[in-house]
Amino acid sequence: MSTPVGAPGSTMSRREFLAATGSAGALGLAGCTAPTEERVQASQTANQATTDGSVPSTSPPEVVDVDEQGGSVTLKSTPARHAVHPLETMGGPVELPRVWAFQADDGDPSVPGPILRTTEGEDMEVTLDNTDGMRPHTLHFHGVRKAWEDDGVPTTTGIRVGPGEKHTYTIPANVPGTHLYHCHYQTHRHVEMGMFGIFRVDPKGYERADREYFMTVKDWDSRLSRMAAGQDATYDPQNRKPDVFTVNGKSAPRTLHPEDGSPIIVSEGDQVRVHFVNGGYMSHPLHIHNHRFQRVEKDGGTIPEAARHEMDVTNVAPAERHTIEFTADADPGIYLMHCHKVNHVMNGGFYPGGMLGGVVYESAMDTDIFAQLMEYAGYEG
């Protein structure tokens, strides 16, 4: 099975993407079908284990249908390198040289972690496998109601999963909606190192939109990552200085890469549903250009229709989850989705970059401007 193109939740295949772009047409104009040696080397660095064999590199987060696995999933964390944007375009390269990435079962490690998806009324058995770990961890799930010992907080439950240990949490899917999970041991450091992900509970009888995507935003103080990698840096959680801003773990223009990034791909007339999650420590007012949307869920609660209204910015606080819906009814083109704290849309001193993605109409993919964006993002066709 091929990896879908677009943000997590996408059903678009690579073949369909190539057909929409005109394959060797517009992409050929940008030189994307004839990658340079530097781009090949950057791609290998981003997607393979490091040459010294020390740690692997992360992959994009996958959606795990836990129901299809009989209601059980195993999570473990592994040290990894995380290429936020591996090329020299638009202020790059940007890297977190050491993260602690979650991986589900035999999947690839990712930051954010795998998206765990289940259905209302099911019980989910989540095993935290720390047998190869070097430090204690736990798992805490937001939103749902669970037994005391499954809350994942070592201070109040007395349960932590030490190196060499495993522990299984029973997580009832009793609150439908989009939620967050993360390590709750030394939270101020372990979340900053990448130990967080999305937990989605579909209501019974759930009807998916034409296009449905998951988007996790995060602000990072890269000093902790650099310190963990042995570089000359000192991290102070009380004097945190965010300098990297991501959408699903990537900074623009890598966010627009169809396989490594998270473009919101739509066709004219689509009903689009986006689940925003803030895995960071700062609020992020997320804005979509040229579209009006409604916020239909917040933190697992359905917003009554009488309380909904048209908007184009939703301010997502730390750990909040906002689900928005809109119709793809704009003039077909390419439109930004970004944090409106404009300094968060930067890679170092370079603008634009950072916490910026895009809504991309399929009919605009066979254009020179889209080919140029793919060149910036490092897509090689």
Automatic annotation (TrEMBL):
Q: Tell me the superkingdom of the source.
A: Archaea
**Which intervals of the chain are annotated as region Disordered?**
35-66
The alphabetical list of record keywords is: Copper, Metal-binding, Oxidoreductase
Query: Which residues are in coiled coils?
Result: none
Domain Plastocyanin-like, which positions?
A: 110-204, 240-348
Composition-biased stretches, type Polar residues, lie in 41-57
Entry protein name: Multicopper oxidase domain-containing protein
Originating organism: Halobellus rubicundus
